[in-house]
Amino acid sequence: ENGSVKGIYVFVTDVTQISQAQQAQMEAQAKLQNVINAASEFTIIATDLHGTIQLFSHGAEKMLGYCADDVVGKLTPAIIHLPEEVQKRSQELSAEFGRTIEGFDVFVELVRHGGAEAREWTFVRKNGSRIPVNLVVTAIRDEADCVTGFLGIAKDITQEKLAQET
Fold first, then answer.
1. Which residues pair with 121 in a beta bridge?
2. pTM of the model
3. Long-range contact list for 103-109, CB < 8 A, 24+ apart?
4. C-alpha distances in Å from residue 30, one per residue of 25, 125, 161
5. Stretch (H or E) spanning 147
6. pLDDT digit string (tens) for 111-135?
7. Can you give the pLDDT at residue 153?
């Protein structure tokens, strides 16, 4: 009043529960990331619905030679596939479904119709060398059971292929 303070209003909110929930969420995310990182002999790649890579595991970095920072949010898994294999699969799926299926849909079309798809592919490393893999693709679903993206987990099957040939 008249330029001088006559009182103060203070609003206090206890944010303990919010802070505890945020801490628990960070710990759960760290635990999940540690589990993903521990799977060093597998590539684990998650994408959004359009195919943009959202997660690229340490195993993927090790197997393929790409750094996660180079691909996450920037590229699709097409960079690690042989174009001729993708084209062949596109033709197979297009014939099966009676419509053109190409691009990222080649990897996820069957998954969109339920279940998972497991098949052999040839991955192309950053240095251009090739590696045979068994790739399993599944849908990532939210709590309402809506598909929010896709998960691909691949294992190098070079030794298995050599054993078969022998």
1. 133
2. 0.81
3. 103/51, 103/78, 104/47, 104/50, 104/51, 104/76, 104/77, 104/78, 107/51, 107/77, 107/81, 107/137, 107/150, 107/152, 108/51, 108/137, 108/139, 108/150
4. 9, 28, 36
5. strand 147-156
6. 998 889 999 999 999 999 999 999 9
7. 96
